[in-house]
Amino acid sequence: MPVQRYVATAALLEGLQFVLWKEVDEGWVRFDPSAGQTLLLAPISRFVLDQLAHPGRALSVDDLSYAVLHEEPDAPPDDCRLAVSAAVDALAAARLIEQRRPS
Amino acid sequence: MRICDLSPSDFRAQLGGDGIRLATGPFNCRLQSGIGEIADELARLYAHHTLVASSAFTDFHIAVQPGHGLRRWLRPQALFSVDSVEPFTPLPRAQALPMLEWGLNWCVTAYSQHILVLHAAAVARGNRAAILPAPPGSGKSTLCAALVNRGWRLLSDELTLISLETGQVMGLARPVNLKNASIDIIRAYAPDAFLTRPVHDTTKGTVALMAPTAASVEAVDTPATPTWMILPRYRAGTDATLTPMGSGNAFLQIADNAMNYHILGDRGFAAVGRMVDSCQSFGFEYSRLDDAIAVFDRLAAEAESAAR
Question: What is the 3-state secondary structure (H, E, C) of chain A?
Fold first, then answer.
């Protein structure tokens, strides 16, 4: 079974330069004025989003977990993978990322 | 000169003629009505508001007039207009007074893009404001009315105005809109407060308007610093309980209850961000008004003590 990879949606990339961030107790508030969308993101969700917010970049949950572990080497790998999976689901539900379509 | 300095006959004559020009916080309004039966209650609701000169800039020219033609007699209607435009369908004439209030709220919301406008009540103790955003039915107005009859200053019942320049809450001190069971609750809780006669069968059920306290109106031009963001919820039988809320959730609550957050763009985002930075935020459940007010008084006392 092929590894599922995720990419930024067109909406994420189009509004990127206008996006505003504010650090809050739970993580980050992200406001995209062009989409009129305000989201509350956990810190790991923002990390995942930042990893994917590059045109043409496609990453799997394993790739993203590896990137998290690179930043936080002491994090338990299983917990890290679960947190990344949850972040990917939340970002996909918010239509900021999507599964890469087969070419 | 204040509204209460006018004799009832002068008030009635001006309302039915060129209009009553009064200041409500940052707005000057001209109110006109040929529906004579609202005059006495309107004069009492706005008794302490300042009259403004006809030469002063007027933000909203508002009129609530009788229906045209046969509708003056057959199921009489009231028509709301602002600057000669009628944005709403007519309502039964008996609803003329609440219609005027709702229409004025609409004007503030529709035309105030230089201020962050929240669907929230706001009260103050000293220069510290508690902002109470909440959906209809949460007990927001009941709690607000009770607080202003126990020493808190009314900034606004329905629309909280946040200055984009200073982040301060600006006062409006307009009547509190009470609905259904809360009318009798506040009549019993604050017998000295002036409430209009109930108006039945409106889209919000039975409504009555409570006049702001004289102290609230006299201090209307004194802004207050957002200090608490409290999301109230009436739940029968529960103890008054504050539950701390993270600043991210508080941000979303404020943004969700802001009328023009998206229109203001980065200025709206900055204003909400500044609010959550300056506020302690809580969810709040209550059932008994005295207990609820004790919680608010304790918050105010703690803030006062911490500032010393």
Answer: CCCCEEEECHHHHHCHHHCEEEEECCEEEEEECCCCEEEEECHHHHHHHHHHCCCCCCEEHHHHHHHHHHHCCCCCHHHHHHHHHHHHHHHHHCCCEEECCCC
Domain locations in chain B? 3-111, 115-307
Amino acid, single-letter form, for residue B70: L
Helix axes A43-52 and A61-71, enclosed angle (nearest 10)? 120
As given in the structure block, the two tokens for residue B136 are: 């209809």
| C-alpha torsion sign, points B171, B175, B179, B180 | positive
pLDDT at B136 over 90: no
Location of structure tokens 């220069």: B127
Q: How many angstroms separate the Cα of B243 from the Cα of each of B35, B177, B254, B281, B285?
A: 47, 27, 17, 8, 8
- Distance between CA atoms of residues B198 and B97, nearest Å: 11
**Most distant CA atoms of chain A, gap in Å:** 41
Please give the pLDDT value at position B296. 98
Rounded CA separation B258/A39 (Å): 15
- The B residues from 235 to 294 touching A (CB cutoff 8 Å) are 246-249, 251-252, 255, 261-262, 265-266, 269, 273, 276
Q: Give the separation between CA A61 and CA A81, rounded to whole angstroms.
A: 7
Q: Which two tokens mark B297? A: 């008084």
Cβ contact B251–A33 (<8 Å): no
* Inter-chain residue contact B269 with A24, CB threshold 8 Å: no
**Which two three-digit tokens encode residue B2?**
């204040």
- Mind listing the domains of chain A with CATH numbers? 5-95 (1.10.10)
Closest of B77, B95, B86, B82 to residue B31, by C-alpha:
B82
Report residues of chain A scoring pLDDT below 50: none
Question: How large is the ipTM?
Answer: 0.91
Please tell me the distance from the alpha carbon of residue B116 to that of residue B259, in angstroms, as a whole number. 8
